[in-house]
């Protein structure tokens, strides 16, 4: 109960109308933008792909509609803001300079260290000295990301799960350099969007993806070797283990490109070859069949999934 009170007090300390910046208008960036907008924060989402910016508003609209339905049709979001207002709080831009006034930036660009390095170096130049940089990285050590900035004490990992608006918890990665104040303020931001932090130490893949990425890769290998078809692989996990979703549908929801990138990051940072993407996963990514967001992966998807990208995955 003491912890709960602490989190509520910290949440109250976070300025209500302060600007939140999101880098990357993809699956996660759009979902995280929804979380903050539904809590009443103005949000600017920046992406360097005009296609992602163009499709962002429709995907945000679909995300808000799905979340509203799953919350029982209430016109209020979980965190309190009317659903219609949330959409109007989000702006879309190609310029990182538009987030100069942000108190918090959540970096949700693709899982590529060079990309994240370029973004963090530029943000460090653009944003005010107090701004916190939170990365949604799946696997890259947060200490490494902090080293790209002159403010490693204000860099932290906030690993939102997919779909972000529907999950109650965020894996928060504290690097050795991350300050107590940064952790406390980050917990405050998360409390404001109705989520609690599960704080873990910094390591490649943290807790979630050190385990999950190997599982997804092995499920793909089992399918590729012909041990079972995709439906049967997934049903083994659902019917025998009680998982809400099997590993191959989860992989399609996350994005097979994101999984292959994450495995390569894990392989590079651990030096362990067991993280090498299996042949089937590598082939599907090379063919552009990266899961729901492309219309096919281990399964085929109807067009409405491309807008909604909903489900009960993780990431
Ligand atoms: N998909 C998941 O289930 C999931 C879950 C948790 C964490 N993550 C992590 O979240 C991050 C984003 O993943 P995603 O699934 O949203 O990927 P995505 O491919 O859907 O979106 C990534 C976006 O980043 C943009 N981008 C690339 N370079 C950029 C740059 N220099 N400036 C601005 N935008 C840039 C791309 O145009 C794209 O729109 C990754 O680090 C990923 O590992 C993903």
Describe the structure.
By secondary structure, the chain is α/β, with parallel strands linked by helices. The protein folds into two domains: 2-201, NAD(P)-binding Rossmann-like Domain (Rossmann fold), CATH 3.40.50.720; 208-308, N-(1-d-carboxylethyl)-l-norvaline Dehydrogenase, domain 2 (Orthogonal Bundle), CATH 1.10.1040. 47% of the residues lie in helices and 12% in strands. The protein has helices spanning 2-13, 27-38, 50-70, 83-88, 113-126, 142-146, 180-192, 208-224, 230-240, 247-254, 256-270, 279-286, 304-308, and strands at residues 20-23, 43-46, 90-93, 104-107, 132-135, 155-159, 169-174, 196-201. Strands 3-2-1-4-5-6-7-8 form an eight-stranded mixed β-sheet, with helices on both faces. The protein is globular. The model is unreliable at 1-5 and 307-312 (pLDDT under 50). Residues 23-29, 46-49, 52, 108-111, 115, 118-119, 136-138, 159, 162, 254-255, 258, 262, 313, 315 line the site of nicotinamide-adenine-dinucleotide.
């Amino acid at each position: 109960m003491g912890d709960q009170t602490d989190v509520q007090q910290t949440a109250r300390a976070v300025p209500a109308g302060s600007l939140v910046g999101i880098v990357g208008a993809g699956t996660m960036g759009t979902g995280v933008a929804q979380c903050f907008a539904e809590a009443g924060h103005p949000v600017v989402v920046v992406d360097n792909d005009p296609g992602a910016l163009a499709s962002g508003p429709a995907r945000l609209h679909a995300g808000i509609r799905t979340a509203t339905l799953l919350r029982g049709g209430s016109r209020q979001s979980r965190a309190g803001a009317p659903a219609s207002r949330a959409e109007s709080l989000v702006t879309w831009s190609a310029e990182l300079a538009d987030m100069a006034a942000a108190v918090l930036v959540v970096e949700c660009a693709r899982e590529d260290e060079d990309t994240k390095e370029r973004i963090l170096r530029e943000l460090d130049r653009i944003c005010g000295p107090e701004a916190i940089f939170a990365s949604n990285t799946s696997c890259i050590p947060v200490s490494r990301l902090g080293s790209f900035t002159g403010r490693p004490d204000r860099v932290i990992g906030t690993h939102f799960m997919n779909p972000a608006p529907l999950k109650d918890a965020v894996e928060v990665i504290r690097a050795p350099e991350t300050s107590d104040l940064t952790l406390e303020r980050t917990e405050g931001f998360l409390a404001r969007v109705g989520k609690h932090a599960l704080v873990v130490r910094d390591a490649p893949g943290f807790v979630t993806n050190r385990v999950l990425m190997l599982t997804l890769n092995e499920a793909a290998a089992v399918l590729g070797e012909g041990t079972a078809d995709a439906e049967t692989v997934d049903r083994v996990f659902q019917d025998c283990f009680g998982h809400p979703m099997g590993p191959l549908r989860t992989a399609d929801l996350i994005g097979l490109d994101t999984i292959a990138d994450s495995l390569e990051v894990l392989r590079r940072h651990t030096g362990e070859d067991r993280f090498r993407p299996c042949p089937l996963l590598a082939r599907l990514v090379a063919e552009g069949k990266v899961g729901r967001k492309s219309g096919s992966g281990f399964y085929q998807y109807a067009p409405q999934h491309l807008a909604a990208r909903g489900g009960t995955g993780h990431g």
